[in-house]
C-alpha cells in the first residue's frame, strides 16, 4: 500500500515521478497534498538512487488548479477574518511548500498538462525546468479573487513581462508561455510524458555531484541577488492584502458563505466575461 493518500510516487531509471492525484478536484492542492508532496520530494532527495524528480498531475485536465480553497474557507474566502497572525501562518505554509522543489538538491521538472493556475503556477515556477503539453493554460488567477501571490517568483523568470499577467489574472496558452519564457518546451499532449522522460533520462546520465553542485551554484546566484528576501516581502504583501477588506473580497466572501463557493466563483468570472480574450497566442 502506498504511504501517500493524495499523490503517487513512482521510480523509473533513477527518476522519481510525483503525481498530484486528485483529478476529481483538478488536483487542487490541499494542506494534506502539500505535506505529502514536500515529504515525497525529501524522500527522493535523500535517495542516492534518484537523480531527477518529475512532478505532474493526474487526469489530463490539469497539472493543478491551485490551492484548494475549500480546504480552509475562513482563510481563503473571507479575507481578513482569520487575522494577521493566522493569515501569515497559512501563507508561510504555502511558501515553504513551494520552496520544496527549489531546496531539493536534485533537478526538479514540472511536467504540465492542462490548467496550471494560481498556487500551482507558483509551485511550477519554483521547479528547475517546466515542460508543457500544447493544451496547457497558465494564469495568476488568484489576483482576480483579491488574493496576492504567496510565492512571487514570476518577476525572477519574466521580469517586467510579469506585471500584465499579475495585474490582470489573464490566462495564456502554452505557446505564449513558451514565447515569454515561462516554460522551457512544448510537446503534443500524447508525447509529453515520453519526451519529458527522455530529457530527464539524459539528465540522469550526468554524475549526481555534478547535478547537485550546478543546481547549488545556480540557486546561489539568485540568492545573492536577493531572491529569498524578495519572496518574503511578497508574502508580507499578501498578509496585508488579506487583512485589508476590499469591496471585491467582501462580496466574494458573502456570496461564498450565503450561496456557496461555486456561485461566488461564477459571480467573479462574470465580471471579466465581456473583457476577457481567449488565452493569448503569439
List the helices and strands and how they pair.
Blueprint lengths: L6 E6 L2 E6 L10 H16 L5 E6 L4 E3 L8 H5 L5 H21 L4 E5 L2 E3 H8 L3 E5 L3 E3 L14 H5 L3 H7 L2 E3 H7 L4 E3 L4 H13 L3 H17 L2 H17 L3 H13 L1 H12 L10
Parallel strand pairs: 2-3, 3-5, 4-6, 5-7, 6-8, 7-10
Antiparallel strand pairs: 1-2, 8-9
Helix pairs in contact: 1-3, 3-4, 3-10, 11-12
Spans of at least 5 consecutive residues with low confidence: 73-81
CATH fold group: 2-enoyl-CoA Hydratase, Chain A, domain 1
How many angstroms does the end-to-end distance come to?
Answer: 46 Å
Q: Which H/E pattern describes the elements?
A: EEHEEHHEEHEEHHEHEHHHHH
Beta-strand residue fraction:
15-25%
Compute the number of helices. Answer: 12
Q: What structural class do you assign from the helix and strand content? A: alpha/beta
Q: What coarse outline follows from CA principal-axis ratios? A: globular
Instruction: State the domain count.
Output: 1
CATH class term: Alpha Beta
Which sequence of strands runs across the widest sheet? 1-2-3-5-7-10
CATH homology group: 2-enoyl-CoA Hydratase, Chain A, domain 1
CATH architect. name: Alpha-Beta Complex
Our Rg estimate from Cα atoms comes to: 18 Å
Range of helix content: 40-55%
Largest sheet: 6 strands, mixed
**Beta strand count:** 10
Average pLDDT, rounded to a whole number, is: 90
Amino acid at each position: 500500500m502506498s504511504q501517500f493518500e493524495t499523490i503517487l510516487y513512482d521510480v523509473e531509471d533513477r527518476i522519481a515521478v510525483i503525481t498530484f492525484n486528485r483529478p476529481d478536484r483538478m488536483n487542487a492542492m490541499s494542506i494534506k497534498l502539500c505535506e505529502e508532496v514536500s515529504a515525497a520530494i525529501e524522500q527522493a532527495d535523500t535517495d542516492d538512487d534518484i537523480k531527477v524528480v518529475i512532478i505532474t498531475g493526474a487526469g489530463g485536465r490539469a497539472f493543478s488548479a491551485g490551492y484548494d480553497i475549500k480546504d480552509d474557507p475562513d482563510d481563503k474566502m473571507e479575507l481578513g477574518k482569520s487575522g494577521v497572525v493566522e493569515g501569515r501562518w497559512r501563507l508561510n505554509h504555502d511558501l515553504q511548500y513551494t520552496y520544496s522543489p527549489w531546496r531539493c538538491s536534485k533537478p526538479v521538472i514540472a511536467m504540465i498538462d492542462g490548467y496550471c493556475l494560481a498556487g500551482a503556477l507558483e509551485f511550477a515556477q519554483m521547479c528547475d525546468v517546466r515542460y508543457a503539453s500544447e493544451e496547457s493554460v497558465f494564469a495568476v488567477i488568484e489576483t482576480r479573487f483579491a488574493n496576492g501571490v504567496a510565492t512571487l517568483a514570476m518577476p525572477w523568470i519574466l521580469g517586467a513581462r510579469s506585471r500584465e499577467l499579475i495585474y490582470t489574472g489573464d490566462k495564456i496558452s502554452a505557446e505564449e508561455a513558451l514565447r515569454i519564457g515561462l516554460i522551457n518546451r512544448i510537446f503534443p499532449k500524447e508525447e509529453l510524458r515520453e519526451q519529458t522522460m527522455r530529457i530527464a533520462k539524459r539528465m540522469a546520465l550526468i554524475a549526481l555531484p555534478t547535478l547537485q553542485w550546478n543546481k547549488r551554484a545556480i540557486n546561489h546566484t539568485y540568492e545573492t541577488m536577493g531572491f529569498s528576501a524578495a519572496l518574503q516581502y511578497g508574502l508580507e504583501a499578501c498578509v496585508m492584502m488579506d487583512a485589508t477588506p476590499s469591496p471585491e473580497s467582501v462580496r466574494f466572501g458573502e456570496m461564498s458563505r450565503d450561496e456557496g463557493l461555486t456561485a461566488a466563483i461564477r459571480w467573479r468570472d462574470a465580471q471579466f466575461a465581456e473583457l476577457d480574450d481567449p488565452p493569448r497566442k503569439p
